[in-house]
Amino acid sequence: MAKILVLAEHRQGAIRDITYEMLTKARELAEKTNAELTAIVLGKNAKELAKPLTEYAKTIIAVEDGKLENFNSEAYKKILTKLITEHKPSLVLMGHTSYGIDLAPRLAAALNLPLATDLIDLAFENDTLNVTRQMYGGKVNVKATARKAETYIVTIRQATFTAKKPEPPADGQITEAPSQLTEEIVEKRFIQYVLPPPGGVDITAAEKLVGIGRGIKDHANIPQVEDLAKTLGAVLSCSRPIVDKGWLPNDRQVGTSGKTVKPKLYLALGISGAFQHVLGMKSSDLIIAVNKDPEAPIFSFADYGIVEDLFKIVPSLKNKVNELRTQKTST
Amino acid sequence: MDIIVCVKHVPETAEAELKIDSTGKNIEKTGLVYDINEWDDYALEEAVRIKEKQSGTVTAITIGAEDSDATLRKCLARGADKAIRLTDPKFADSDGYAIAKILHSVIKTLHYDLILTGMQAGDDGNAEVGPILAEMLGIPHATMVKKLELATGTAKVNRELEGGLEEQLEVKTPALFSVQTGINEPRYVSIMGIRKAMQKEIKVMTLADTGLTENDVGTAGSWTKIEKLYVPPVEKQAEFLKGTPDEVAAKITEILKSKGLI
Question: Does residue A192 sit within a domain?
Answer without folding.
Answer: no
